[in-house]
Amino acid sequence: MTSMEERCTEPRKGLAGMPYASIAPDRNPALKYHVGLGRAKSAVAWERPNRYNPETRQFEYRGVRGGEVYQQDGNAWKLLYRVEAGTFPDDLPWKADR
Asked: What is the mean pLDDT of residues 22-41?
């Protein structure tokens, strides 16, 4: 089980409603519903602000927020994408679908 999978376990229990949902453990609330797939992807692909490292005196890139994207499939939810925190935008799983 990946670290993101573990962190999304508790919010996953509340899935219901709209056609798409995202779980981003670093966001409050962690679980949000979306009308479109693009908004659900954006929710987990949000780029975290750079952080200044005083030791190196440079800003460090921190990648995307990470989380999981779901689609409602009848009465069940289907996991479409899982993105680990810190992933680079070019490495997002839906970029490989193109």
From this structure: 92
How far is it, in rounded angstroms, from Cα 50 to Cα 63?
Answer: 8
Helix (H) or strand (E) holding 23: strand 20-23
Token couple for 38: 């693009």
Query: Does 10 have pLDDT greater than 80?
Result: no
State mean pLDDT over 88-97: 88
d(CA 40, CA 36): 7
Q: Are strands 67-73 and 58-60 parallel, antiparallel or unpaired?
A: unpaired
Going by pLDDT thresholds of 50, 70 and 90, the confidence category of residue 1 is low
* Torsion over CA: 6, 24, 63, 78 (sign): positive
